[in-house]
Each structure stands twice: as C-alpha cells, then as structure tokens.
Specification:
By secondary structure, this protein is α+β, with helices and mostly antiparallel strands. The protein has two domains: 4-85, F0F1 ATP synthase delta/epsilon subunit, N-terminal (ATP Synthase, domain 1); 89-136. Helix content is 31%, strand content 42%. It has helices at residues 90-105, 110-136; strands at 4-9, 14-20, 22-27, 30-34, 41-45, 48-54, 57-63, 66-70, 74-79, 82-84. The strands form two sheets. A five-stranded mixed sheet has the order 2-1-9-8-5, with no helix packed on it. The protein is elongated and about 50 Å long. The protein starts with a strand and ends with a helix.
Length: 137
C-alpha cells in the first residue's frame, strides 16, 4: 500500500514522525482524512484526536489546537500539544476532569469559564485516547 511521511510537531518536541498509510485529524470544519497523494492543503485544527494508520494498525494521539499542512512531500501537523496513550496517566486525567467539572458547576464567567471548559475538553480527549489503548490491549 502507498504511504506518505507524517510529522506531528509541538513547540517542545517532535511527537511523531514516520511513513503512514492514512491520518485523520479534527479540523475546524470537521474530521479530515488524508491519504497518499492528497491535494495540497492547509487547515486549522481543533483539540481532538488524531488517528494514524500504519501497516494496517491504528494508533491515536490526543492533540491541542494547531494546523495541518499537506504538501507533495509530506503531511505536517503543528499543534500546541500531542500525547500518545502511553504518555497519559489515567489518574491525573481523571483528577483534571473532576477539577474541571467542579469549576464548571460553580458557573464561572469570562476567562475562568473558558479555562474550565478547555480543561474539561482536554481531559475528555485524553480519556478517549486512553480507552482506545485499553480496548486494544
């Protein structure tokens, strides 16, 4: 099967780099799928889950917002954060989710609301990636 080079880069590190068969990512207008020989593209990404298919196997990363660029040579995903399931601590994620839920129950406004909402969304995405790993194991 045909492949293309994928790089997922955060400000701190290269989270992923390899030849892959397909990648899906959460764009601002919905989930986008990229296969080999995709037309050139540049799009904004939202927080969510990236699915990578390599040699018929699927792997997932939880990502923060950012951008995706498709060129004839490769696909580059630039995001604020990216975590593989094995890098996530389930207890820490559950605690963050609980803190976010408690903060949202207090009906914050303005920046506090946005911060609590973002924390809750991040923890939901991380739990989804963790559950996929457990299901696979």
């Amino acid at each position: 099967m045909s492949t293309f080079h994928l790089e997922i880069i955060t400000p701190e590190r290269i989270a992923y780099t390899d030849e892959v068969e397909m990648v899906t990512a959460p764009s601002s207008s919905g989930i986008i799928g990229i296969l080999p020989h995709h037309v050139p593209l540049f799009t904004k990404l939202r927080q969510g889950e990236v699915k990578i298919t390599k040699k018929g196997e699927e792997s997932y990363l939880a990502i923060g917002g950012g951008f995706l660029e498709v060129t004839p040579e490769k696909v580059v995903i630039l995001v604020t954060a990216a975590f593989h399931a094995h890098e996530l601590n389930e207890q820490v994620v559950k605690e963050a989710q609980k803190r976010a839920e408690e903060a949202l129950k207090s009906k914050p406004t303005g920046g506090e609301f946005l911060q609590a909402q973002a924390l809750f969304r991040q923890s939901e995405i991380a739990m989804k990636v963790l559950k996929r790993r457990k299901y696979k194991a």
